[in-house]
Design goal:
Radius of gyration: 32 Å
InterPro entries: ARM-like, ARM-type_fold, HEATR9
Helix content: 55-70%
Number of helices: 22
Oligomer: single chain
Structural class: mainly alpha
Number of strands: 0
Distance between the termini: 42 Å
Largest sheet: none
Protein name: Protein HEATR9
Mean pLDDT: 80
């Protein structure tokens, strides 16, 4: 935050306009400007300002880490006197302040002034039907009294009755602050895997690692957890979530079995099964070179565009993590021929090299430059125009008669083409 902005906001605390003072106090608090000059200015306006300005100044001081007796007493007074909407806003400020306070090592935490009376006030707010206000009060009390049975009971009740967002707030407190890892908590975490909020799904996946395999097994939820995570590997639209699932199944010792199932599923005659397996392996990784070569063959033979795209994406993800695969995809060219469907042919990579390098026809070798080429099979059906796949350059089909090649580059090109069709070295390192 620039010094000029800080100075302008601090100067606005002394403005004759009440709204400008309130805005300045609010901004200084939420922007985290907590140096001595700002804190002194907030203290000053908290003593001399109007009631509305005082309220904003005290809330800003709380957010900036000042939880002494006068601040807590002022916030408590707001909770007792304000209307419902204003009371909720004060509770949110208090929860944010106490969250930061609880994250500080115990030896360095300042004392919370007026604490016992604040605890009683929060308990009174909890002793009401579940709503945003009572939940925020429970979260505040959870930071102050993580072992409080009343708070734990209220939050566990919230897992059954609250909305998805309310359940997630309760889960964070139960799992991370209170270390409650019961069956109800695990089930609530698994339900959050279906949340519409990406951050909540990500956090729920990571919470499963905190619960651990032994507790999940003892709760009889291992099979359910396995099935949900396995599905999440392919039906999650975001790669970052799929990667988090991969890390969690690894921590829960489920990864080897899921990889084995997905590798076997690559051979399924069902298009959806193959695509699910390909997407899942993109996050899970690769265990041996056979799977890598199988995907290359599938890229060559697969006719479904969506599956072909998934193969391309998985190969790119693998290449981003594995230098060996990156090198293979950078230096290898796949020559794909248009062959009549009545002719039985081997996968492209296992074909014998052409009898004569002249049989290999490249439309524009200077454009290709031996970049990563993923060439899909192109069928010249009646009435359809053959187009180059979006992912690659296109190699035209060989012609029986071609004029002899000319140019100083001819011998070098022939040598490169011969090298490209030779067997490659085996893989030495994996994801």
């Amino acid at each position: 935050m620039g010094n000029s902005i800080k100075q302008e906001l601090t100067k606005s605390l002394n403005s004759p306009q009440e709204d400008e003072q309130c805005y300045a106090a609010y901004a200084l608090g939420h922007l985290g400007i907590s140096n001595k000059f700002v804190m002194e200015a907030l203290w000053q306006v908290a003593q001399t300002g109007s009631a509305k300005v005082k309220n904003e100044a005290y809330k800003a001081l709380a957010i900036l880490g000042c939880l002494d007796k006068s601040v807590i007493k002022a916030l408590s007074k707001q909770l007792m006197e304000q209307k419902e909407s204003q009371r909720l806003e004060t509770l949110v400020v208090l929860r944010v302040a106490l969250n930061s306070w609880a994250a500080t090592p115990k030896s360095k935490r300042p004392e919370v002034g007026y604490e016992e009376k604040l605890v009683l006030l929060l308990q009174n707010l909890i002793d009401k039907p579940l709503n945003e206000e009572s939940l925020e009060a429970a979260l505040c009390l959870g930071f102050l009294r993580p072992s409080n049975s009343m708070v734990q009971q209220f939050l566990l009740q919230c897992l059954c009755q609250g909305s998805m967002s309310q359940r997630m707030k309760a889960l964070r407190m139960l799992v991370k602050m209170m270390n409650v890892h019961s069956t109800a908590v695990t089930r609530a975490i698994l339900e959050q895997l279906h949340s519409n909020v990406i951050d909540d799904r990500l956090e729920a996946i990571q919470m499963l690692k905190t619960i651990g395999l032994e507790k999940i097994q003892a709760q009889g939820l291992e099979e359910l957890t396995f099935d949900l995570l396995k599905r999440k590997m392919h039906n999650e639209p975001f790669q970052v979530i799929r990667q988090a699932v991969s890390e969690t199944v690894d921590a829960l010792k489920m990864k080897p079995l899921i990889m084995k199932l997905m590798e076997a599923q690559l051979m399924s005659p069902d298009v959806n099964d193959r695509q699910e397996a390909i997407i899942s392996l993109g996050a899970l990784g690769i265990r041996n070179e056979q799977v890598f070569h199988l995907l290359l063959d599938m890229l060559d033979a697969e006719e479904t565009k969506s599956v072909k795209k998934s193969i391309q994406e998985t190969l790119l993800v693998w290449a981003s993590r594995n230098p060996w695969i990156q090198n293979k995809l950078t230096n290898k060219v796949f020559f794909v021929y248009d062959v009549p469907k009545t002719v039985n042919t081997e996968p492209t990579r296992f074909r014998k090299k052409p009898e004569s390098p002249e049989d290999l026809c490249i439309t524009d070798f200077r454009q290709a430059k031996l970049s990563p080429l993923f060439i899909a099979k192109a069928y010249n059906k009646l009435g359809e125009k053959v187009e180059a796949p979006a992912f690659s350059f296109y190699f035209s089909k060989p012609k029986k008669q071609r004029p002899p090649a000319t140019g100083p580059w001819e011998p070098k090109i022939r040598e490169q083409l011969r090298n490209l069709v030779l067997p490659q070295n085996r893989c030495v390192s994996w994801l």
